[in-house]
Write a structure and sequence with these properties.
heterodimer; A: alpha+beta; Uridine Diphospho-n-acetylenolpyruvylglucosamine Reductase, domain 2; Uridine Diphospho-n-acetylenolpyruvylglucosamine Reductase, domain 3; four-stranded antiparallel β-sheet; globular; B: alpha+beta; Aldehyde Oxidoreductase, domain 4; 28 strands; 23% strand
Chain lengths: 261, 787
């Protein structure tokens, strides 16, 4: 780790002001950023810790939506969303290990947009809205490729607003070492159709499998996708799986998610 | 027998401090005035150092001194402890292994410079400020490419990248070829024994200390064998005589072989402490451990097994490429040769065996012993090829093994070792019962209903451990003896201290050794303490590896205790005014045979140190004895293992649903500790079979340089094991009748896992005869797609 300044603002406004400084970096739960700093792979001059901002924390119902503050930990979501949005709670309860779940936050995960992270699949499949310090961004516009989002410099995610689906499930096939998603598929069924989002698989980060969405919107059963296939083109190939294997898993896990939803 | 003697599952007394965070590990030690070193390591696998400029870095805050190879002129290289002779009678090629890179870098992670500074962060900052310009050269990674004509050379001064071409038994070569040519059936298997990173929980640490007043050096280090480090570093690297060099290895958090070796960081800290005039401490990070701890296995092998019509083994021929990495680590040359070729007979009567091993230098981290060391490589290929042969010939795999079992002992194998004792049918019988093999078909059906493929893998293993007879290993190229030592000191009030040359880094010596001594004398084990890990207060010993502590170190303790008892009987005879020959020791009482006259252990020990009524003219006062024990043979633990798996046909994911191990360890001192040793070995064997793999890209970058990509086994990856060691054929040549147990699990389990997965796929109609480890979901799925 290199030396850095740290600020601990108490409000969103103070955080935004602090982030205006040169080479300032927002710090959520630190589950990605701190290891990166320890390995000296990043050298921000100033860290702006968001963990002291009360208004970023907690879950609340807003009509038929579930709104989750960006500073809410995975463990809190796992515990407190269990009734309102069980598939989302299950996803949160399967991220990392207890230490990660008790520090890591939904906002941090989304802002980082790791191509193997779980939350992006839930947000995209739910058609959630990402609310920031300056605007509201639809999930379909938020994720822009590996580690890339629509966020501007100094813009902070404040909460995520999820429409709650009629039925949903997240199926994660773990990469054997990191236990991140080698492939993860989130299927969400709404009155007006089904959304399917895939994480871990594509070189472009989380994406929607539109053919499966169309088929499942007609017939919400695992059989409905049996005739479909996913192209390995553009899929990640690495030590843990070839593009072909990942493409195959997308279909297997989508079927399982439908069956489990 | 007192409570807690031989055979008792006493709880491990050392666990109290380990489990309450009170262990004293090397990194817990801080010496007044210590400075810290950070090493600048090469980030390219192969290159020529064109420029190394430390001028700016030396001006950085807190920097005390920066060392480069130039500072180590006149200092020796890191020595290799074993010289292998090739099949033509020539010594292996043995390049110099400098403390800091001299002119060239040869693997990612090799140390180029060491920065000593006031704080770790200052040392690291300055290391980053060193200007180093390296002309990159093509890296040699693939072993078969490395030995081709014209391949780039890892060491310019050597003839080639071939360290040695070893043949064993060379005289059998033609007879083996002939037997294979003429056999009824030959089964061939090509396989990879995957490269592994040991990853003990505690990374390495070294602290060098120099005392100007006494001219004495002290090295604190995370070693499995502090005396060996003292000898290698003192005599071969730094030129410090043993009486001026003390090596201390306090609590050590796991080694698995990787902490046997003498590492350059140890020599650096010892050297720099004197040069800087301050204690110098190095603490390895996990990332650094991945590129600096010696790694394990990495063999590419072709094995052929020739059989007659009835399935009797006629001959075995194996060809192996063994990766040495860029330099020869301490025992690296012995692993693919004498620890591997000598085990190729396994549990079977095979009259003709020929083993060829080509050891190869590559631009990778040095490779050396890792739990099992050579024996897992032998066991894996043998037990896999037997399984394949059984399928090809339509013979039940268990029956084929039984048909070839060695049943008479002692048995001299055609590969130079003599098994003293064993009963392979007994462990197989036990295993079949434990694993409920008879009920397998029913479980298979049940798995099918749930859409899972079920498979059963069974195999045997044998290993040679309790290393080793010094005269034998000397003939084979070892540059050290492999005896063990013990001093047993009895105090005036009857308590004892065992000062052992063995070293515990997870094996439970502090519990098991007192059980032995207490049992011999008939006292409570709490009266016995163990001292180890410090060359200043233990006799010269060879340390702990090769499952040797109880078989060799324990035998030394027995011999020393026997001397204690013999002397104590003389004292007792004097006190009882009886003849020494009539004195019996039982339950801590010396009794005159056939009488009720007795004295207690404590009376005798007190007399030894307060010799008022004592035969001073015939006997020295005091009660302290030392013994060195050199084994006359290896011990040969053996057993049979069964693994049952379920494979998800959609994803290729393997789940181990059951694992049973029936081992013959001879006599057992503490069954609970033995269970734990087997559990740990099985965990590492399953890790190798399913998860672990150190992978380099073609440029020599380690792709699996952290736990994000190097998959370690976790609790959820392994089943609740069923282990048994009730089949006991005691070792015939050591006083305890014990065999080693530390490596067995890691030796016997990988073939069981692979046999089980292949079985599952074949039962489901896939034409799959082998999958290379680790059997990741991706690999298993790919195998299913191909056949």
């Amino acid at each position: 780790m290199y030396n850095f300044e740290i600020e601990r603002p108490g409000t969103i406004e103070e955080a935004v002001a602090a982030l205006a400084a040169e080479e300032a970096q927002a710090l959520g739960g630190g589950q990605t950023l701190i290891p990166t700093l320890k390995a000296r792979l990043a050298a921000p001059a100033k860290l702006v810790s968001l963990s002291g901002i009360a208004e970023l924390k907690g879950l609340r119902r807003e009509g038929d939506r579930l709104v989750i503050g960006s500073g809410t930990t995975h463990a809190e979501v796992a515990r407190e969303a269990a009734e309102a949005y069980p598939a989302l709670a299950a996803l949160a309860g399967g991220i990392g290990d207890p230490a990660v779940r008790n520090r890591g936050t939904i906002g941090g995960s989304l802002a980082n947009n790791d191509p193997s992270a779980c939350y992006p699949a839930a947000v995209l499949a739910s058609g959630a809205t990402v609310i920031t310090s300056t605007r509201e961004i639809a999930a379909d516009d938020f994720f822009q490729g590996m580690f890339t989002t629509a966020l501007d410099d100094g813009e902070i995610i404040t909460s995520v607003s999820f429409p709650v689906p009629q039925a949903a499930s997240y199926q994660k096939f773990e990469q054997p070492a990191s236990r991140f998603a080698l492939v993860g598929v989130f299927v969400a069924k709404f009155a007006d159709g089904v959304r399917v989002a895939v994480t871990g698989a594509s070189e472009d980060g989380v994406f929607r499998w539109s053919e499966a969405e169309a088929a499942l919107s007609e017939d919400f059963s695992a059989d409905a996708i049996s005739g479909l296939s996913v192209s390995p083109e553009g899929m990640i190939g690495d030590l843990h799986g070839t593009p072909e294997y990942r493409a195959h898993l997308v279909k297997v896990l989508t079927g399982r998610a439908v069956a489990a939803a | 027998m007192p409570d807690g003697g031989i055979g008792a599952s006493s709880k491990r007394r050392e666990d109290v401090r380990f489990l309450t965070g009170k262990g004293n590990y090397t990194d817990d030690i801080n010496i007044h005035g210590q400075a810290y070193v950070h090493f600048l390591r090469s980030d390219v696998a192969h290159g020529r150092i064109r420029r190394l400029d430390t001028a700016e870095a030396e001006k950085m805050p807190g920097v005390l001194r920066i060392f480069t190879a130039a500072d180590f002129e006149g200092v020796g290289g890191i020595p290799c402890g074993w010289q292998v002779t090739d099949r033509h009678g020539n010594p292996m090629q043995e390049p110099k292994h400098p403390v800091l890179a001299e002119g060239k870098v040869r693997y990612v992670g090799e140390m180029i410079a060491g920065v000593v500074a006031e704080t770790p962060a200052q040392a690291r900052d300055a290391a980053e400020a060193i200007v180093v310009d390296i002309e990159e050269l093509p890296a040699v990674i693939d072993m078969k490419e490395a030995v081709k004509d014209g391949a780039p050379k890892v060491h310019d001064e050597l003839e080639s990248n071939l360290c040695y071409d070893w043949g064993f038994v060379e005289e059998n070569r033609e007879a083996v070829d002939e037997a294979i040519r003429n056999a009824h059936h030959v089964t061939t298997l090509e396989l990879v024994n995957n490269r592994l990173v040991a990853n003990p929980m505690e990374p390495r640490v070294a602290i060098g200390v120099y005392d100007r007043a006494s001219d004495e050096h002290t090295l604190y280090t995370t070693s499995q064998n502090p005396h060996v480090i003292r000898l290698l570093m003192g005599a071969f690297v730094l030129g410090i005589p043993e009486h001026k060099l003390r090596v201390i290895s306090p609590d050590v958090g796991g080694g698995f072989g990787s902490k046997i070796f003498h590492y350059a960081e140890e020599a650096f800290c010892t050297f720099a402490a004197k040069a800087v005039g301050r204690p110098v401490k190095w603490t390895c990070s996990r990332s650094e451990a991945f590129i600096s701890d010696a790694q394990g296995r990495d063999h590419v092998t072709k094995i052929e097994l020739a059989l007659d019509e009835e399935g009797h083994f006629l001959a075995i021929r194996t060809d192996t490429y063994a990766n040495m990495g860029a330099y020869l680590s301490t025992f690296a040359p012995s692993v693919p040769t004498w620890l591997h070729g000598t085990l190729m007979a396994g549990n079977y009567k095979t009259p003709l065996i020929y083993v060829n091993v080509k050891a190869v230098f590559t631009n990778t981290v040095p490779v050396d012993a890792y739990r099992g060391a050579g024996r897992p490589e032998a066991s894996f290929q043998l037990e896999r090829v037997i399984d394949k042969a059984a399928r090809e010939m339509g013979i039940d795999p268990v029956e084929l093994r039984r048909r070839n079992f060695i049943t008479e002992f002692p048995y001299a194998t055609p590969v130079a070792v003599e098994y003293d004792t064993g009963d392979y049918n007994a462990t197989m019988d036990k295993l079949l019962e434990m694993a409920d093999v008879a009920g397998f078909e029913k479980r298979l059906e049940e798995s099918r209903k749930r859409g899972k493929l079920r498979g059963l893998g069974i195999n045997c293993y044998i290993e040679a451990c309790g290393i080793a007879p010094s005269s034998l290993v000397g003939q084979l190229g070892a540059r050290a003896g492999l005896y063990e030592s013990a001093t047993v000191r009895v105090n005036a009030t009857g308590g004892l201290v065992i000062m052992t040359g063995s070293h515990s880094h997870g094996q439970g010596h502090e519990t098991a050794f007192p059980q032995v001594v207490a049992d011999m004398i008939g006292i409570d084990p709490s009266m016995v303490e163990v001292v180890h890990g410090d060359t200043a207060n233990t006799p010269m010993g060879m340390g702990t590896y090769g499952s040797r502590s109880l078989a060799v170190g324990g035998s030394a303790i027995v011999r020393a205790t026997e001397k204690i008892i013999a002397k104590a009987k003389k004292i007792a005879a004097h006190l009882l005014e009886a003849s020494e020959a009539d004195i019996e020791l039982k339950d801590g009482q010396f009794t005159v045979a056939g009488t009720d006259k007795s004295v207690a252990w404590g009376d005798v020990t007190l007399a030894a140190y307060v010799p008022h009524n004592y035969p001073l003219e015939d006997l020295e006062p005091g009660l302290e004895e030392t013994a060195f024990y050199d084994p006359s043979n290896f011990t040969y633990p053996a057993g049979a293992y069964a693994c049952e798996v379920e494979v998800d046909p959609d994803t290729g994911k393997v789940e181990i649903v059951s694992f049973c191990a029936a081992d013959d360890f001879g006599n057992v001192v503490n069954p609970m500790i033995v269970d734990g040793q087997v559990h740990g070995g099985l965990g590492q064997g399953i890790g190798q079979a399913l998860l672990e793999h150190a992978v380099y890209d073609e440029n020599g970058q380690l792709l699996t340089g952290s736990f994000m990509d190097y998959a370690m086994p976790r609790a959820s990856d392994v089943p609740f094991y069923k282990v048994d060691h009730s089949c006991q054929t005691p070792c015939t040549h050591n006083p305890l009748g014990v065999k080693g147990c530390g490596e067995a699990g890691a030796i016997g389990s990988p073939p069981a896992v692979v046999n089980a997965v292949v079985d599952a796929l074949q039962r489901a109609g896939h034409d799959v005869t082998h999958i290379d480890m680790p059997l990741t979901p991706s690999r298993v799925w790919a195998a299913m797609q191909q056949g």
